[in-house]
Specification:
mainly beta, four-stranded antiparallel beta sheet, 36% strand, rod-shaped
C-alpha cells in the first residue's frame, strides 16, 4: 500500500524528507491500495489493488464526490481492459469494440432468411441466405464444350446436345422450388430453364418458329433464386 496526502507540512529536515518520500511513493504507485486514499483531491487517480480481485486491479478517477472506474489491469495476463458502457450496435451509445461484441451484431442464417431485422449486420459469408440474393448464376458461351465466362456457385456446365445444357451447382439448394431465369443473346432463340434436382439446372434454347428445334446462341445466362 502506497498512499499518502499530497500536502507537505512545515517540519524539520528529517520529518519533511519522510513526508516528501511518502508523497512521492504514492505518486509513483498511483496511490495503490485496497480503499480510496483518506485524503484525496478531485481529478486524482488511485489504484484499487484488491478489486475485483488481488490479481485484477481497478483504476479510478476521483471526481470530487465519486470514484469513476476507468478500467482494470489483469496482472496475471498483463492486459488492461478499458471501461465502457454495455450497448448493442443499434442503441446509439458508446461501446468498446471487442471481438465478441462485433460478432454478436452479425445476423445469423435464420435472421437473414427472415429478412426482417433493420439493425443486424450481414456478413459476406452469410449474405447468400437472404431470400433476395441469387443462389447461383452463370454467363457462358454455348459451344462444345461450353465455356464459362463468369459465374457464382457453379461447379460445372455440360452440353447434352445443340442448345441443351446442364449446370451443376457447387452448393445445392434446399428444395426444387427455385425461381430460375435464363436468357439468350440470339434473336429468335427462346431460353427455357428447368430445375431437375437441388444441384442441377437445365436450360434449352428453342427456335421461336420451330419449338422442337434446339440451337446454340452466341452467349447465354442463367440465374437461380431460392433457399439454401
Amino acid at each position: 500500500m502506497s498512499q499518502h496526502d499530497m500536502i507537505l507540512a512545515n517540519a524539520d529536515g528529517a520529518t519533511f524528507r519522510a513526508d516528501l518520500n511518502s508523497a512521492l511513493a504514492a505518486l509513483a504507485t498511483t496511490s495503490k491500495g485496497s480503499t480510496r486514499p483518506s485524503t484525496i483531491s478531485a481529478g486524482q487517480l488511485w489504484l484499487d489493488d484488491n478489486s475485483p480481485s488481488s490479481s485484477r486491479w481497478t483504476l479510478y478517477l476521483y471526481d470530487g464526490s465519486d470514484d469513476i472506474a476507468l478500467g482494470e489491469f489483469d496482472t496475471s495476463a498483463n492486459v488492461f481492459y478499458a471501461t465502457a458502457p454495455t450497448a448493442s450496435a443499434d442503441t446509439n451509445t458508446t461501446q468498446v469494440a471487442t471481438t465478441a461484441f462485433v460478432l454478436g451484431q452479425a445476423a445469423s442464417q435464420n435472421e437473414l432468411e427472415a429478412a426482417s431485422s433493420t439493425t443486424k449486420l450481414a456478413s459476406p459469408g452469410r449474405m447468400k441466405y437472404h431470400p433476395g440474393v441469387a443462389k447461383a448464376w452463370i454467363n457462358f458461351t454455348p459451344s462444345n464444350p461450353p465455356v464459362i465466362q463468369r459465374s457464382h456457385n457453379v461447379a460445372s456446365i455440360s452440353r447434352t446436345g445443340a442448345g441443351d445444357y446442364n449446370i451443376t451447382l457447387t452448393e445445392g439448394t434446399s428444395d426444387t422450388a427455385c425461381a430460375v431465369f435464363a436468357s439468350s443473346d440470339t434473336f429468335g432463340l427462346v431460353a427455357v430453364p428447368t430445375q431437375t434436382s437441388t444441384t442441377v439446372f437445365r436450360v434449352r434454347f428453342h427456335d421461336a418458329d420451330t419449338a422442337s428445334t434446339l440451337a446454340d446462341p452466341t452467349r447465354a445466362s442463367l440465374i437461380v433464386y431460392g433457399d439454401f
